[in-house]
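Quick illustration, no need to memorize.
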Amino acid sequence: MERKCVALISGGLDSALAARLMLEQGIEVHGLYLAMSWGCCEKGKAVASAQALGIPLMVLNVGDAYVDVIRSPKYGYGTAMNPCVDCRIYMFRIAKRYMEEVGAAFVVTGEVLGQRPMSQRQRPLDIIEHDSGLEGLLLRPLSAQHLEPTLPELMGVVDRQRLLAISGRSRHEQMALAQDKGITGTSTPAGGCQLTDAFFADKVKDLFAHDTRPTTKDMELLTIGRHFRVGPALKIIIGRNELENLMLEGHADTGYTCIRPRFAGPAALVAGEATDGARDMAVSLILRHTKDSKRPSGTLDFWVTPPPVAAAAGGGAPNGAGPAGPRAGGGVNGALWRCEPPAEPIEATPAGVSHA
């Protein structure tokens, strides 16, 4: 058996300690970080952790298949929309493929027996190992002496006597070890998974209730702006600051239309078909979230990205949108759209999907 492993690196203390224990036994360690665009563990901390350990780090983005895991977890949810057991299985299946790709012999993780109520008890640990296809090849160095020996231990590749017997939710032992081994700058457990947050979970529930094929892009958008559900297949997202305005504009694509005012107001992203009614609703929401002193009188000017089809073809677009092309002052790929302000505000409710 090769003296080489793949270690899941989250940027947290436990994963750094697990990798260090392998390095101290002369095991070649290849780090793996799985990135989620809507936020989970901190990528920067994972990169810094790998650099401090002196190991290579592969960063992989989870695909749309992971959204299906969240939507229909075989082993259910935790406190909110966190499918902890299914999530670990998904990650370890990827780790197994990476293990085979780099010619490693086993996978290492910083999991601690009893630390997490849903995924780190004995039964879930066994399920995760079995369903990921890593039976006998999934080593948890921090709690190894509480668990059955793995193949690397049985074959003498890893010295079991140098592994640990940590369990429970207290982190005193890990903190003492980190101080002893000079490990600093790791994430705290409170950084945690977005899916355990009740407000974010409500947004996820709304997305799954109205979209039959949500993507990682849809999940990422849940972290941006104020969300208004205005139809079964239509949602409008309003930026809360200039950074979010730019992010919403960056997400403009087929099926996601950004309407950005040429006055000092928030951008709106229409997720769904940008009909006349949807654009009118977006304008109403933009005006609702624009300071009174910043609202212009008379005709309103906006950049629409991507441009309406007629504009992209070079002709006149609906509601006065002009031809596509680079523009100064915002909406680089957008088309100018002029409209009159609504006679009366159009009401829209957050529908429990965001802080309005």
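Residues 84-102 form the longest helix (19 residues).
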